[in-house]
From TrEMBL:
It comes from Candidatus Kuenenbacteria bacterium CG08_land_8_20_14_0_20_37_23. GO terms for biological process: pyrimidine nucleobase metabolic process; pyrimidine nucleoside metabolic process. Keywords: Glycosyltransferase, Transferase. InterPro entries: Glycosyl_Trfase_fam3, Glycosyl_Trfase_fam3_N_dom, Glycosyl_Trfase_fam3_N_dom_sf, Nuc_phospho_transferase, PYNP-like_C_sf, PYNP_C, Pyrmidine_PPase_CS, Thymidine/AMP_Pase. This is Thymidine phosphorylase. The lineage of its organism: Bacteria, Candidatus Kueneniibacteriota.
Amino acid sequence: MKMFYRSKRLDFQSGGDPIVVIREKEAENQGIMPGDKVFLQWNKKKSIVAIVQYTNSKVNFGEVGLFKEIWQKKDIIDGDVAKVALESRPESIKAINKKLLGHNLSYDETYSIMADISSGKLGKIETTYYVASGFAKAYTMLELYYMTRAMAMCGEMINSKIKVVDKHSIGGIPGNRTTMIVIPIIASLGLYIPKASSRAITSPSGTADTMEVLAPVEHPVKKINEIVRKTHACLVWGGGVNLAPADDKIIRIEKRLSLETHDKMIVSIMAKKVAMGVDYLIIDLPYGETAKVHSLKIAQKIAKKFVSLGKMFNIKVKVITTQAKEPIGAGIGPALEARDVLRVLQRHELRPLDLERKAVLLAGKLLELKKFCRRGHGKKIAEKQLLVGAAWEKMSEIIKAQGGCSTIKADEVAIGALHYEIHAKKSGRIVHLDNRAINEICVNLGAPHDKVSGIHMHCRLYDKINKGAKLYTLYAESQGRLDLGRLAAKNNTVADIK
């Protein structure tokens, strides 16, 4: 049944899904409940699907109240007549119910979910239930294939006639910004390595957040293709180009819940690789007590799934599992990680050698996977590209092509930030570094939103420390944020000294 209402503009914003309000008694009479979705149409060119909420004061009977996002976007004025109809229950809702009950989904059912998340037909509540369904029963490999394929197919696909290589870290370890070193090393050798990364979910920075310190990361597909043709690489945000758009909406839900299933992580990564047309892929999979993956046994299970899923899409995947007991690099937070990357590429005397070694290892493994060189020779080739300056020259080209300053120096990054040093309260040896504590402090300092916020580590695991020695320095954009970071540092033990 269709009803006609006069529009009333409300000075409210939802900050998310479009919302309309109707008088409670009137809505009940029409069988419309809070949270239901309705289709509103003013004319052939003006329509929208919105979520209904009840009110007893903001609108009169016969009126539908429109939140600001709706009347601004659709150019609606007070009194415009809207035809309102209750949306039928979509197939995606039925599919989510089925998954919550522990049943496996077909490709069509999975596609209906991804398509409706991408289009906005499924809101935050429904998407949250879908995210939670992954905990009810483990996904089969066929379901993971369906999810990956559907997620990729619902967005833009960048299909290249050339062979494309890529490297991806599952994240969760402070610092560890190896991708921004591997990309220019590989591209400097003439291979194509376009990189579409996610922003941080529960960590102080993601590759896209860190690269954004040096250059814009949001570009249309046409511009990305131009950058890749020119430089053989790019470092962009996947969400900015509509690659696997359902994934970015799911990530926002996961961020609110501070969780991500391992299967969902695999799908999230692989969907973007499928969309980018990747042929060869190295996965950096760190594990440890305070990492995303807690044990080698779980890491090995995840690695098998990555390889198996890759085969289904004709992508050759190799997973490198490494034990992670401490941050990789010295900087944690967008600008501080960018400084580490530039120090490695520019051969700075203060460059973090652990970050350099790991990046060289991963780049070498990728060269061998592509059969660019014989097994055991990749690391030496990758190392040479750093030593002769070819990797920095290539990174400079990428930064310039993406609209950044190609002559930026490492020590120019993070200038002007407020800082506060944390010192050792006793002498001894560092026997434990808590990655979770580091992440928590960085987030309180304002990372990743505040680019210069974060921590610079002065110590390493197993270092001998004297009382009063610098352990780490807090960085923040404002005194208020610095104070919050100091409070978080007071309530978290980053370095255990014995």
